[in-house]
Write a structure and sequence with these properties.
By secondary structure, the protein is mainly alpha-helical. It is 79% helix and 0% strand. The protein has helices spanning 3-25, 29-47, 59-82, 85-94, 96-107, 114-132, 142-169, 172-183, 186-195, 199-203, 207-228, 233-240, 243-254, 261-278. Helix 1 (3-25) packs parallel to helix 13 and helix 4 packs antiparallel against helix 13 (243-254). The chain starts with a helix and ends with a helix.
Length: 281
């Protein structure tokens, strides 16, 4: 990865942790995710006149990705209901890079070299430590962990599908605009069906925060999709998950969740893994 691609992925990591924190902060998860998803749809629609229409070969990937993203939102909502932000977010994000490595090798024929493989494994160990070592002295909530791991499966799936789709599209911005426009219809429609006349009363006090989350969400994924047109999928997925450190810090500062020496040690493993992953030659 070039320095520019690396910087784009790291910026995506920060913005991604930010929108997830906003989604966790909004108590009614369906309201929060409807605002973020619907805001993403509006941003996508606004971009359509200024972007190229994706090539025909990208559309099967785009439509499959939209379906996977809807499952991702549903599982992420469940993860945030069941677990702490500092637990659910790291497990969901940390489980994805290993799966992406396997899927990218099978479907994109991107087999990582020894350094990249070692870096991805060490990074995943560090990310898992950030998630699980903070539970010391408490019994794990297996329902919350299971939901977060299932979320990680959807993350890995849409990462590979979109990596292939954006390369076939001819325009990373056109691809993200249409993806947001298509996938963003489902959760708002379900929210309106559930709440009908009372929908606006739920949306109004949280609209500003939710729309900020939408802007961060679209920016984060647009940066990642652009990066996927310029580097292999597995290293991008692993580097992107440095967002877990941002998420853990947010959990400690804003949600008053514990971030002690074990997680600091796990963060050190993450830094070492990223160093190995980015080594060339």
């Amino acid at each position: 990865m070039t320095p520019l691609v690396t910087a784009a992925v790291l910026l995506a990591a920060v913005t991604h942790a930010g929108w997830n924190a906003i989604a966790h902060r909004i108590t009614d998860k369906l309201t929060g995710f409807a605002l973020i998803s619907g805001g993403g749809m509006l941003i996508g629609l606004a971009l359509l006149p200024f972007t190229a229409f994706p090539a025909a070969g990208a559309w099967p990937y785009l439509l499959v990705s939209a379906a996977i993203h809807i499952a991702y939102y549903a599982l992420l909502m469940r993860s945030f209901r069941l677990g702490d932000f500092g637990q659910a977010y790291p497990i969901a994000r940390g489980s994805a890079p290993l799966l992406v490595t396997v899927l990218a090798a099978v479907f994109a024929h991107e087999v990582p070299d020894g350094w990249a493989t070692g870096g991805i494994l060490v990074s995943c160990a560090g990310l898992t430590g950030v998630a699980l070592w903070g539970l010391r002295g408490r019994r794990p909530d297996w329902a919350a962990i299971g939901a977060a791991l299932a979320t990680g499966v959807t993350i890995a799936a849409y990462t590979v599908v979109d990596g292939l789709g954006v390369r076939a599209s001819g325009s990373s911005l056109g691809y993200i605009a249409w993806l947001m426009a298509v996938q963003g219809t489902v959760l708002p429609a379900y929210f309106l069906y559930r709440h009908r006349a009372g929908a606006w009363a739920l949306l109004r006090p949280r609209a500003g925060l939710g729309l900020l989350g939408a802007v961060l969400s679209v920016a984060a994924y647009a940066l990642v999709l652009w990066a996927q047109t310029r580097a292999e999928l597995a290293p991008i997925a692993a580097l992107r998950e440095s967002s877990i450190l941002v998420g853990a810090a947010i959990g400690a500062l804003f949600f008053k969740e514990r971030f002690g020496a074990p997680r600091i040690a796990a963060a050190g493993l993450l830094v070492l893994g990223i160093g190995l992953m980015l080594r060339t030659g």
